[in-house]
């Protein structure tokens, strides 16, 4: 499965920024060893249900450690039997664009 998720604390720093808290969540994802990527809006992580959800929970927990309230947006692509889709899906789109 691939999960795209976004975590944000309820409040930001003195400028309204949330990058420090979000960076801690991304650090958890990267330390998991699961295939992942981060863009301006979401972090994508690929793996089995239990391992991906455990990583999401850990990421929420580190943000919750610095904020009394946490927002989580999550979207999942659940396709049993498929791996390596984090990049393969994008490659298929690029191929289709080349047609």
Explain how this protein is built:
By secondary structure, the protein is an alpha+beta fold. The protein has a single domain, classed as 2-Layer Sandwich (Alpha-Beta Plaits), CATH 3.30.70. 43% of the residues lie in helices and 23% in strands. The chain is built from 3 helices and 4 strands; from the N terminus they run βαββαβα. A 4-stranded antiparallel sheet has the order 2-3-1-4, covered by helices on one side. Strand 2 and strand 3 form a beta hairpin. Helix 1 runs antiparallel to helix 2. The chain is globular and about 50 Å long. It holds the Pfam family Thiamine_BP. This is Thiamine-binding protein.
Number of helices: 3
Regarding quaternary structure, how should these chains be classified? Answer: single chain
Query: What number of structural domains do the residues give?
Result: 1
Mean pLDDT: 92
C-alpha end-to-end distance: 28 Å
SSE order = EHEEHEH
Q: Shape from CA axes?
A: globular
The CATH architecture term is 2-Layer Sandwich
Record field, number of beta strands: 4
Describe how the helices and strands are arranged.
Elements: E1 2-9, H1 19-31, E2 36-38, E3 43-46, H2 49-64, E4 70-77, H3 85-98
Antiparallel strand pairs: 1-3, 1-4, 2-3
Helix pairs in contact: 1-2
Domain Thiamine-binding protein: 3-94
InterPro entries: MTH1187/YkoF-like (IPR029756), Thiamine_BP (IPR002767), UPF0045_domain (IPR051614)
Family: Belongs to the UPF0045 family.
């Amino acid at each position: 499965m691939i999960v795209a998720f976004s975590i944000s604390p309820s409040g930001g720093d003195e400028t309204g920024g949330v990058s420090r808290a979000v960076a801690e969540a991304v650090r958890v994802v990267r330390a998991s060893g699961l295939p992942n990527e981060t863009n301006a809006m979401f972090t994508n992580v690929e793996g089995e249900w239990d391992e991906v959800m455990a990583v999401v929970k850990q990421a929420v927990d580190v943000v919750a450690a610095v904020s009394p309230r946490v927002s989580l947006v999550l979207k999942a692509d659940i396709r049993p039997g498929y791996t390596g889709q984090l990049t393969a899906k994008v490659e298929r789109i690029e191929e289709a664009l080349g047609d």
